[in-house]
């Protein structure tokens, strides 16, 4: 009887300890992922707007934006999100530069 | 606060578990491979039980026994009632060999091996054939140890060896009160030194204090072995009247008597247990009275601490571990549950990474600015405005998703700079966000 109590209590402590560590960590990782994708989406949209406003075509920028959109479609982790954001930013800069002439 | 309580509960659980594991130590003391070498046995004679007496050779002993029905070797102490023994023998030829007590092992064996003797008496130990007679009642022990009278053992053994009916019991030892002179001599010594050692007694000293009688100084009276044919002087009650409230220990040879406080409670128990265990050895050997007294006092101590006779048990310190042992698993379980509850509350607490301070105001201000200038834009400024609006939308979504403040403010900063660019392209300094927002707030 008491043996069962010992084992159950030990399992409860182990589960509670692991949970208390793992749950905030998972939550934090999810938050960072969502934040990164939020930034990436904002950059892609901004780049899209710049492309529509741009006069000429910039193949290099098109390529960068296409790559960013491909990465975004695959829905990866924070690192993929940062890569997509980086590509979109560079495409945005190129089109803005093209617009200013 | 919760966090600290959580850690305290965890530490308590670990402490309980460790305590439990430490208590689990099994104490089965089995030794087979690691059996230590036996210590040297107690050498014979180290307790002063040897008298130094010697006995003749086996041939001489046999010759002596054949020559006389009763052979008393020098130093013998055993006596008996001749008529009772003859009656028990019923006319058969009985030869008795009497040896002194305290013989060395080989001497004692030699006496026991004299087959010509019907009965061998070593000290007061009586044996014959393959039999040995032992006293088992206080009435017999007092005969044997106080006076050296072995009539009861002899008659029992001889009747048995000759297939005669059991001999009648020996009458109880006669007692008499001490005379005034005897009592005066004893009390005088007891008052000055606390003990009275009669001439011939072997008590050299007595313990000053003893655990057998805590808080009391016992009085010791030591007398040598008494003659068997005269009444035994009954010192105990007379001295107890003389010294009320003092424990009084009187020794007659190897016989110890007690009078004084709570004599009724333990004296008989002490006598039965002491002579029941040591009677055999005391009868063969010549222990000094000091050693007999020490062993007897140890026995009284053991009885005192045995908790017999409704005496309060000696104080045992409170041991929290003993008391808590059955509760340990439940303590552990309680700690586990508490830890679980606090962990859950910590994990499930509605946590917002950012406070969201200032975000709605900025969002509203910038959105109002965008709406305000949306009618004025064209070309490059329209693209800039659209980018700003895109950023604002993203900031709004991020704010709704509870993303960190830093990120939301970063998006708002980007929107602000786009709107700033828009205002610059339009040439309207009053629509620059810094100025516009300041005006709105004022």
Show the largest interface: A-B, 31 and 40 residues
| Helix-strand makeup class of chain A | mainly alpha
Beta-strand portion of chain A reads under 5%
User: What's the end-to-end separation of chain B, in Å?
Assistant: 43 Å
What does this 3D model show about the protein?
The complex is a heterodimer of chains A (101) and B (442). By secondary structure, chain A is an all-alpha fold. Chain A is 90% helix and 0% strand. Chain A is built from three helices and no strands. In chain A, helix 1 packs antiparallel against helix 2, helix 1 (2-53) runs parallel beside helix 3 and helix 2 (59-74) packs antiparallel against helix 3. Chain A is rod-shaped, with a radius of gyration of 23 Å. Chain B is of the alpha/beta class and 442 residues long. In chain B, the strands form three sheets. A five-stranded mixed sheet of chain B has the order 1-2-3-4-5, sandwiched between helices. A four-stranded mixed sheet of chain B has the order 7-8-10-11. The mean pLDDT of chain B is 86.
Draw up the topology in text.
The complex is a heterodimer of chains A (101) and B (442).
Chain A: H1 2-53, H2 59-74, H3 78-100
Helix pairs in contact in A: 1-2, 1-3, 2-3
Chain B: H1 2-23, H2 58-67, E1 70-72, H3 82-89, E2 96-99, H4 105-112, E3 119-122, E4 125-128, E5 131-133, H5 138-147, H6 151-161, E6 175-176, H7 180-193, E7 195-197, E8 219-223, E9 232-233, H8 235-242, E10 248-252, E11 255-259, H9 263-284, H10 289-305, H11 320-324, H12 328-348, H13 359-374, H14 380-400, H15 405-426, H16 433-441
Parallel strand pairs in B: 1-2, 2-3, 6-9, 7-8, 8-10
Antiparallel strand pairs in B: 3-4, 4-5, 10-11
Helix pairs in contact in B: 1-12, 3-6, 5-9, 9-10, 13-14, 13-15, 13-16, 14-15
